[in-house]
Amino acid sequence: MVGWVxxxxxxxxxxxxxxxxxxxxxxxxxxxxxxxxxxYHTVDWSYPAQxxxxxxxxxxxxxxxxxLAGEVTFTPEWQEQRKKEVEKLIHFLQRDGxxxxxxxxxxxxxxxxxxxxxxxxxxxxxxxxxxxxxRMESAVESDPSLAIGTAKELIETxxxxxxxxxxxPVSGTPDVSTLTKETLKELKLxxxxxxxxxxxxxxxxxxxxxxxxxxxxxxxxxxxxxTGHGKHGxxxxxxxxxxxxxxxxxxxxxxxxxxxxxxxxx
Length: 266
Known about the structure:
The chain is mainly α. It folds into 2 domains: 6-107, no CATH class; 115-264, Four Helix Bundle (Hemerythrin (Met), subunit A) (Up-down Bundle), CATH 1.20.120. The chain is built from 10 helices and 2 strands. The protein has helices at 6-15, 31-40, 48-69, 76-95, 115-123, 127-142, 144-165, 176-186, 201-225, 240-264, and strands spanning 98-101, 104-107. Strands 1-2 form a two-stranded antiparallel sheet. Helix 1 runs parallel beside helix 2 and helix 3 runs antiparallel to helix 4 (76-95). The chain is elongated.
């Protein structure tokens, strides 16, 4: 908030319904820092609802900072400084278990890491897959049903991309089970491909067999609770933790398939 006037700082915290203790005298320098600390002093940081109010202020700060960083009326040096400030705040949010995703600050605790499939999307220039990853990230907290539906679609996109890269493009509209089976076969990941003499062969075969069921499971979950199907008006959806399970399973499978594809492609 460097460069903000005191009234602007007060407006942000007041809009988020954060109280201010003007009698609190923190050991910091400057009027802006003092005012922010007076707002912080009233927050019970063990109470999620109050933390959420402060995060609302942070969201607005990030929105404003990102907008300013893109203003062409400012010098490149000034813009670069703003970008660094944004990156610094996001870094500290991540350290405290939060993520800046889809224009919102969301809890990162237990959120599956999608870094590896983001890299894969970039390497294979799979724009559609990159869009799906962004959609999942922003929907895990705000729209679990959308995240579940997109997780299943991600596996389909992953399999189609790999098969196309290997000169085996699919025709028609095969279901996720068929796509997964064909991809596992093309990558020689079917259980029969593991020699019995290999150490831990039984365990490896079981794991590979289970890989093929992830897509089926997500398709069933999508049909019951995800997007893409009409439901009874009083039906209730699943929670964030279920969405994280679906996204995590899809991320694990797609990352493994892409890494195998990359290592074995001739």
